[in-house]
Every structure is written in C-alpha cells, then in structure tokens.
Model the fold of this input.
Amino acid sequence: MASSRTFRAGLIQLRASRSVEANIDAAAKLVREAKTSGADYVQTPEMTNLMERNRKALFATIVEEERDPALAAFRELARELKIFFHIGSLAVKATSEKAANRGLLIDPQGEITARYDKIHLFDVELADGENYRESNTYRPGDTAMLADLPWGRLGLSVCYDLRFPALYRALAEAGADFIAIPSAFTKQTGEAHWHVLMRARAIETGSFVLAAAQGGVHENGRNTFGHSLVVDPWGRVIAEGGVEPGVIMAEIDPALVAEARGRIPSLQHGRRFEVAPVEKPRLHLVGKAS
Done:
C-alpha cells in the first residue's frame, strides 16, 4: 500500500560507452548530483555499465554479478549517500554462452533487495536496416519482480518489456504503486512510441512510471532516444529529460495512486470474456450435381 509521504526521485540519463570504468564514473557523478538535489530514490538506465553490441567484445568485458565492478561501486555509493539506488540494468555473465540484462535495487545499507532479469528480448528489424537480436546474446528472465520501498511497492521491468501491457497489469494487481522502466530505446522507435507507451502504462495501471533512459549517439554507433520520463498515475508527464546526459528530478506523491485508481477502478474489473474460436467456413459448391 502506498504511503502518505512524498519522496523525490532522481532519474539518471546516460550515454554509456564501451568503457565500464568511464560509465561508472559518469553515473556516479550524476547520482551524487541527484542526491544533492534531494533524491531519496535514484534510477539509472538500461545497460548502465556497458553499451556494446558486438558479442565477442561484450563477453570479453562482462563478468558474473558477484565480480561486477559497477555493482560493487554502486552498492558502496548507495551506502554512502543513504539512498535507494535502482540500477536500471547491468550486462552480467549468466553462463559461458549467455549474458543477463539484470536490474538491481540496492537499499541505503548497500544491500541488494531485488533482482530482475529482462523478460522480453529485443529481436526486431527496423526501417533503414537497423536490427537487433538480443536473444543471440542474452538469456531472458522468467519472473516478474516487486520490491518494497518506504513509500510503496515498486514493479521492476526493462525497456522492451514496455510493449507487453499484461506484465504491468500483473505488477499493479500484485500491489505495485510505481513502475520502473529503465531503457535504452532506439531513436527511431522512441520518436514513434516512447511517450504514448509510457503514458499508457501509467494510465492502465494507475501507477507512477519512472523511466531513466540512455540518450544520444554512443561509441558503438547506437543512437538512443533519451527523454527520461516521470509520468503520474493520471498519465501526465511531470518530468522529462532531453537527449544529453543529466539528472531529471520529480516529487512523487503516492496518494495520487489511490486517487487515480479510485476514479478509474479498472484493476478491479477483471477479465470478463473469452475469445471465441474461429470456425472454418463451410464450402458451398454451386452448379449441377454430377
């Protein structure tokens, strides 16, 4: 249940490179800036530690979660700053053949309180030859994840999950007041769908949506959309970034969750239909009988 207390959320917009060390430094600087601005909860985007599409180069760099230098640095930073630090996702080695696209929530004591592996992998072919095959490199998760914050319950997701509304309804029905959608949306799909999908997920669930994003042209050539967003439960954008790295701050009032769900109680109106099977059409022959 959402708390009556408000809190300040800081979204960290990045332009991650192929250097894990440089990405840690860039993120840490902005996290400190968010804390100075009063952030209680800080979220970074998808692929905070590394933006690398080349499979061989990726596996030459990433390590298992317990040895990941970004996770170690961010756990210490959360402990130092006394914040809830939500790493949108890290690329970590899951097996010798597959990586995991893993989000982690760290509490103010530096302890990991939730892990979420991205369920829906981005296997698409876009216009102008832009294509992605995340399933060649990453192992999908199979479990939706909730975590309790002092102000309410957080539902975790990552980027392409955004296009699967059943996930978000399930999270909301399980008690999520806030939905995290850290992302590295492509510029092409972001221009077409980013705002409308984020607002839709907020409206459908009566939840706050918190979406830190990657933005700009990266070292590996990928062009991400940016525009980190905070959307309130009524679907209003209350904070938005541009394309450049930076901090996006928003005051979050959990009372608005109950207010929106009271106005439109769609979560209480469960599925009331079945899909009728399609019958094969009968073949009618017209003409003389043989």
